[in-house]
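Friendly challenge for the regulars: who can give me the structure tokens for this chain first? No prize, just bragging rights.
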Amino acid sequence: MTITPSLQNTFVLLKEAFSSSTDLKMKTMKFPHCEYGLFYLDTMIDTTVFQDHIVKPLTERPDITVEEVITLRVIEKSETFQEVVNAIVQGKTVLQKEGECVLYLLGTELQKERSINIPTKERVLRGSNEAFIENLDTNINMVRKNAPSANLVVKYFTLGRVSKTRVAVVSIKGIANPDVVTMIERRLQQIDIDYLEAPGFIQEFIQDKRFCLFPQVLTTERPDRTRAYLMEGKTAIFTEGSPDVTLMPVSFWAFFQSPDDYQINWFFGSIFRLLRICCFFIAIGLPGLYISLASFQSYVLPLNVALTFQGALKYIALQPVVETVLMLIALEILREATVRLANPIAQAIGVVGGIVIGTAVVQSNLVSNTAVIVASFTGLASFIIPSYEMSSSVRVINYPVIFLSSIFGMVGFVFSLFCLLVYLCRMNTMGLPYFYPALFGSEAKDTLIRAPIWKLRERPKEAAPLNRLRLRKPKG
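First reply, four minutes later:
Bragging rights claimed.
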């Protein structure tokens, strides 16, 4: 639909488009030789900017062209009715002169955003204390300040038929693989949905496997971590209204890396990373190992340990598999309660609830002390993983391991871990191997361990970067 030169016709069209919404304002400014029409949503514009940069200049110099009299930074032209409607929804003021088909879209958006604060979901001991916010332009500004390079490429997309959500794809030219970037952009353009709740919707639309046990994208709120992964050749996806940034493609080992690893001595950083990887296997296998040993193969344990197991289970009414599952479910309920409740109440519920439930179930002979210890260690091991997505996956995967261990004992336990390893080896993300071999070659320097910085001369292969050389003269 095109715009006609008549202001009255524009009034009628906009009134129908916005269903006579009361916050839609349509004003007329009449002068001896010309007449202007102003269309805007009073709940979306900055009234100070509107008065000082539009109304006042037009009143003082009505005969000068709009480009000369308006002093705003954003002035666009449009002849399409749909573009005018979208501009009004975004908070712009539309200006039309009687007798002209061209409408001016003036940037008067009301900017209300929270200040840049410290990260709340990814706290580290050392490193930057800035976190992304919900404003897309501010987030892009933070990335450009951290990586002031002309090769930093930003491409904008608008997704959602109704929501019109702005999405930005950020990569570094010359480092990021253009085939991977093109694939991500193509998958974003193929999203056809009315409303986009980001970044969760985007992750499910663009990932390779729709039904996957492990996360295929990495989410972060830290600008320094985003910059580090961009420098490795990965691509970042920013979304308007969300402080979380989606990074891809990533491998399995990226979910165990923390900014702290690169701020401390490499030896301690390697120990902490190995600890996280060990906790991954503890969180998955400890309940199944306990069930298989307590129910089937207790004879493989030393005599004193086996007698302790049997003594602890002698007066317990429930089977080991039942008591373990109940304790894990109770742990999940406590975790969810502490997340949803207000902070002061959540702390009290977490401490008191854990003590009361643990003491009550043991004294009532429903659950053994060993099961409580196993469930506690499993929960702590899952919480130490830096990525929330990977931590959630671990807490779900241990249930199939428990199921097979309760039926086949140690054979089922080993078989479940073997199937898990095969599943990881077969996974791909953006056409790249997810469980990339990390025990040999240059890739082992920043996966299981964190080698000294002067040893990390090449970028990881997981994102298939164009330029793998990162460090040229390690010691000057």
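Residues 7-106 form one domain. The chain has a mean pLDDT of 85. Your move, everyone else.
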